[in-house]
Amino acid sequence: MTVKTAVKTAVVTGASKGIGLAVTRFLEEDGFRVVGAARTVTPELKEASSLAVSVDLATPQGPAELIRQAHGAFGSVDVLVNNVGAFSPRTSGFAAIDDAEWQHTFELNFFGVVRTVRAALPHLVASQGSIVNVSSARARGPQPPTVDYGAAKAALTNLSKALSMELGPKGIRVNTVSPGPTRTPAWTDADGFGAGLAAAAGKSLEEFLEGFPGMAGLTTGRLTEPEEVAEVVRMLASGRTRAVNGADFVIDGGQLKTV
Q1: What string of H, E and C letters represents the secondary structure of 75-101?
Q2: Is 200 inside a domain boundary?
Q3: Out of 26, 32, 106, 149, which one is annotated catalytic?
Q4: At a CB cut-off of 8 Å and minimum separation 6, what does 162 contact?
Q5: Residue 244 parent element (H or E)
Q6: Listed residue (160, 144, 147, 68) closest to 110, CA to CA
Q7: SS in 3 state form for 23-42?
Q8: Which of 58, 191, 198, 252 has the fewest C-beta atoms lying within 10 Å of its C-beta?
């Protein structure tokens, strides 16, 4: 559903592909000026967004620079979608993950969000804005191949709930979207996470992905599409969900079996 809004500015991180690119396209359709941030700006992001910013959000200075450019270009930040994230297949087990890998996982998946929210907060207070943090189903359902990523996303989900309690009285809604396995390049590229799991299982990527939904307990029988996650982000970014604050929307094809 396309819902036109008064001209507002949305900042979307991890916007060059997958879920972030789908969110960027949907919010532009809804009338937002989208500042799409990515370490590498793709032609698709340039075409989809009002402003594409190349930035490394795993660095201490990256988030503040992103918000500076967004506010400088359009004069406001009304919606912040923290979508940036990355994970590697930990097929050699917990003991093989060194401190540098743990640090990198948390810098990108958790501390990058902390710094981006902190940089955007004065503008979000002024606009009575909204924050949508893209976490993961692994925050609730941990698995060994994503042990560090799941831990970082669990921290993000916890942070989101605490922020919703603090910022709600200031007019800022904070919600979380938690996708499960989604048909993004991380799963489908020849050098991605899915390929790493396939190699560990001694299968081709195509063979692995075909059997994965059943093996992983996806009751829908398929991977989630990026647009299906983006539709929920779009809803939370709109003015139609003003009573929704502190919620976590799991979009995992029925993988999680707990209440």
Answers
A1: CCCCEEEECCCCCCCCCCCHHHCCHHH
A2: no
A3: 149
A4: none
A5: none
A6: 160
A7: HHHHHHHCCCEEEEEECCCC
A8: 191
Residue 1 has pLDDT above 50, yes or no: no
- What CATH number corresponds to the domain at position 76? 3.40.50.720
Query: What percent of the chain is modeled with pLDDT above 70?
Result: 98
Q: How far is the C-alpha of 66 from the C-alpha of 19, rounded, in Å? A: 19
For 231, other C-beta atoms within 10 Å of its C-beta total 15
If one counts the domains in the chain, the total is: 1
Domain extent, residue 83, equals 9-182+224-251
- In sequence order, what DSSP letters do the residues of 91-135 get, joined into one string? TT-GGG--HHHHHHHHIIIIIHHHHHHHHHHHHHHHHT-EEEEE-
Residue 131 lies in a domain: yes
Sign (positive or negative) of CA dihedral 66, 103, 19, 184: positive
161 occurs within a structural domain: yes
Tokens of residue 187, six digits: 């799963």
- Is 167 tagged catalytic? no
The pLDDT tens digits of the residues spanning 102-122 come to 999 999 999 999 999 999 999
At 54-95, the pLDDT tens digits run 999 999 999 999 999 999 999 999 999 999 999 889 999 999
Q: Is residue 154 part of a domain?
A: yes
Give the residue from 86, 98, 84, 40 showing the smallest Cα distance to 193.
Answer: 86
